[in-house]
Amino acid sequence: MRVCFVLALAVGQLAAANWPQWRGPGSNGVSAEKGIPDVWSPDRNIAWKTPIPGRGRSSPVVWGDRVFLTTDVEAGKAEGNKPPIHRINGEPFRHPDSIGANVRHKLIVLCLDRMSGKVIWQQTAYEGVVFDERHKAGSYAAPTPVTDGHAVYAYFGSEGLYAYSISGKFLWKHDPGNMQTVGMGPGTSPVLSGELLILQCDSSDQKSKLVGIHRKNGELVWKTERTTDVTWATPLLVGAADRQELITTANDVVISYNPRTGQERWRGPGVKGNAVPSPVSGNGIVVVSAGYPDKYAWAFRAGGDGKPLWEYTKGTAYVPSPIFYGDFVYLITDKGLVTCIEASNGKVRYEGKRPGPGGQFAGSPVAYDGKILLTSEDGETHVVQAGPEFAVLRTNSVGEPVLASPAIANGMIFIRGRDHLFAISQ
């Protein structure tokens, strides 16, 4: 019994120390670690910084002493390649900020040593033309990879899902089919549930689907058709009572699925906007949100029937996801305004607080040891005190723009800048 207890404790500690997927162990941006520095600058507490080629909006994931990251490198002209024709209300539409289809792309998976930042291996998952355009501020390497400690799984939307061993050996590829993103590019990240990798493959041509793929061989296990428009949010796996459920968001509907089979459990109101922020959960409560064109968030109990617990119609973001930490949900707008809501009843503890003089925010917040980190596109990270009283403890910078969300693992904070991956530690 003693041996079993020690082994279980060790496994639990390992899981807590790793950051294996989008927004960490529970997909909520929260780390249980303590003792990590909350002060840094280009010449202080930066353990290493490694140049990363190309551009990416994906976050690093960490398992043990390995850090995995994806990136998109332009690889020459592709003048004859044209994106699909998008339509809104039946009329052709092209977003003025859409680019990328007239260029060939190399979509790359990298593995770095956590202690030194040295690149251990690099693999080109895909090279060629892309199906749809992307936003000029985005990337075809926007989805964050996921790892189970045996393999790393990197997703690039219409350009495929790829599996590599920890040592960099190609294992398999899964083709999810083409998805129209109204020229904004991919966003949703894969979710690992037992033996399955789950992808939310929503498309603006109404050919949306949710798929479960076997992580050992890349074969399709189940597929569930969806009638939703394109989304960019990552679905959330939550457990309650004797079951797990997968929460997906869309403009018109929030749907809970059985992650083992893809069978729908219930559906509730949509998020009334572009589904970009990912759902978050804690204390048996799930919060979903969107920030454009309408600002809206609502909460429900995990394992229930999707009946709204409370709603809030201010302070939500177009891009950054909220964070559920302790007893509170923190919303952050694209301008960095912070709102704290008591999760159990929807009571607003403070709203519209600004952590700094201004700036734009694209990355989602992370939290550890009673602190919430809010990183702006300028590369400044505001360290905010967690709890119902707003206070900015300090502001740090890595010295270059940041569009991705941080990761926290094994005593270090990892921040992906425009040109480098930074590791912060004592």
Would you mind describing this structure in some detail?
- The chain is mainly β and 426 residues long.
- The chain has a single domain, classed as 7 Propeller (Methylamine Dehydrogenase, Chain H).
- Helix content is 4%, strand content 43%.
- The protein has a 4-stranded antiparallel β-sheet with strand order 1-36-35-34, with no helix packed on it. Strands 2-3-7-8 form a 4-stranded antiparallel β-sheet, with no helix packed on it.
- The chain starts with a helix and ends with a strand.
- The N terminus is likely disordered.
Spatial sequence of strands, sheet with the most strands: 1-36-35-34
Low-confidence stretches: 1-15
Counted up, domains total: 1
Radius of gyration, CA atoms, in whole angstroms: 20 Å
Give the tally of β-strands: 36
CATH topology: Methylamine Dehydrogenase, Chain H
Distance between the first and last residues' Cα: 37 Å
Q: Into which percent range does the helicity of residues fall?
A: under 10%
Short overview:
The chain is mainly beta and 426 residues long. The protein has one helix at residues 2-17; strands spanning 46-51, 61-63, 66-77, 86-88, 91-93, 98-99, 103-113, 119-128, 134-135, 146-147, 151-155, 161-165, 170-174, 191-193, 196-201, 208-214, 220-226, 236-240, 243-248, 253-257, 264-269, 280-282, 285-290, 296-301, 310-312, 323-325, 328-332, 338-342, 348-353, 366-368, 371-375, 380-385, 392-397, 407-409, 412-416, 420-424. The protein has one domain: YVTN repeat-like/Quinoprotein amine dehydrogenase (Methylamine Dehydrogenase, Chain H, 7 Propeller), CATH 2.130.10.
